[in-house]
Amino acid sequence: EAGVTQFPSHSVIEKGQTVTLRCDPISGHDNLYWYRRVMGKEIKFLLHFVKESKQDESGMPNNRFLAERTGGTYSTLKVQPAELEDSGVYFCASSRAGKGTDTQYFGPGTRLTVL
Amino acid sequence: AQSVTQPDIHITVSEGASLELRCNYSYGATPYLFWYVQSPGQGLQLLLKYFSGDTLVQGIKGFEAEFKRSQSSFNLRKPSVHWSDAAEYFCAVGATGTYKYIFGTGTRLKVLA
Fold this sequence. Notes:
The complex is a heterodimer. Chain A is an all-beta fold. Helix content of chain A is 0%, strand content 49%. Chain A is built from no helices and 11 strands. Chain A is globular, with a radius of gyration of 13 Å. In chain B, strand 8 (64-68) and strand 9 (73-78) form a beta hairpin. Chain B is globular. The chains are: A mainly beta, B mainly beta. At the A-B interface, strand 4, strand 5, strand 9 and strand 10 of A face strand 5, strand 6, strand 10 and strand 11 of B.
């Protein structure tokens, strides 16, 4: 089966611009997660979808970040306007169940650079 | 507070040598433990996981990890490292009733020929 895919793999934008990241989870996985890794730091949870509903967005840094999951399939993460501190690698993951015992399958990440 | 510590940011070993990557966690509930690897240009790949039972867990690519509750550790080991093992390794913890993973900062492994 196809894994989690993310697009684009890299994005370089200027401060103040808008960027939209996309994630396609594994087919049949109702749970979708976004994580972020700022350079040199740990990978941190951003938010969790169950189908099209946001279950937890406690990790979202601020209101410049907007995540959607239309129809419960793919998800987008929009940053508007981007700031320098938003640079990092954004990972998407999916799982069948939203439990701590359930394996989350990760995509390759999108490396975002804000200049 | 819940946390995962990977004390070694970088490790260099010679090909064929043994490897141990350290991971310590701080978690009040029963932890579920994971090791992921990220090779250049690739996503995070699950190496192994521990939920319960035998505290020595076997994973893919010849890796194993041992859960030691008394030491709050889940160290990753491999008896003989191959050049293709050069990558970044992440330890993570999940728990009953949660869905978030908490990750360590990662250990970057370099393998010398």
